Amino acid sequence: MIFLKLFLTFLKIGTFGFGGGYAMLSLIREEVVDRHAWMSNSEFIDLVAISQMTPGPIGINTATYAGYAALEHAGYSSPIAVFGAVVATIALCLPSFLMISLISYFFLKFRNNKYFTYALLGIKPLSVSLIALAVLSLTNTENFIDFYSPILFLLTLGISIKYKTHPILILFVAAIIGLLVY
Which among 10, 23, 110, 172 could disulfide-bond with 92, CB atoms 3.0 to 4.6 Å apart, if both were Cys? Predict the structure, then answer.
């Protein structure tokens, strides 16, 4: 039963998660933390941090780890939890795969159609709002336990904007600062 719930949950997220992985984070959090209680908010925040640092798209990484954690918290063994990770990942990717296949098939036929162009223009602000919602849903008292976190955030944001610093270098320096401060 949990496999079906996991599949349907991530199928829904994959279907309505316009805007990419960061936009999906608020939907994933709502489902795995609030609705199904497969993990705590603190665990979800840790999961997002790990998903950002591992190679690959953050939405898919988060779904993979969430699928594993959901089954592990339900008392299943690690090999079965790995199957949960696979189910969540496939369910999340399936709608995008099907939609992109259809869009690519019909794109040449409709690319000069004004309604098609207007529909694509309408999706852009939705994507931005979903990413903003993800930021807001991850911003809470658990993330800002002390005054160092907002200072580190503003410092890294300023450096990345002003000097166009590579994100991996910023992650590395922030990790060192985290080790020294905490």
Answer: 10
3-state SS, one letter per residue, for the chain: CHHHHHHHHHHHHHHHCCCCHHHHHHHHHHHHHHHCCCCCHHHHHHHHHHHHHCCCCHHHHHHHHHHHHHHHHCCCCHHHHHHHHHHHHHHHHHHHHHHHHHHHHHHHHHCCCHHHHHHHHHHHHHHHHHHHHHHHHHCCCCCCCCCHHHHHHHHHHHHHHHHCCCHHHHHHHHHHHHHHHC
Domain ranges of the chain: 2-143
| pTM of the predicted model over 0.90 | no
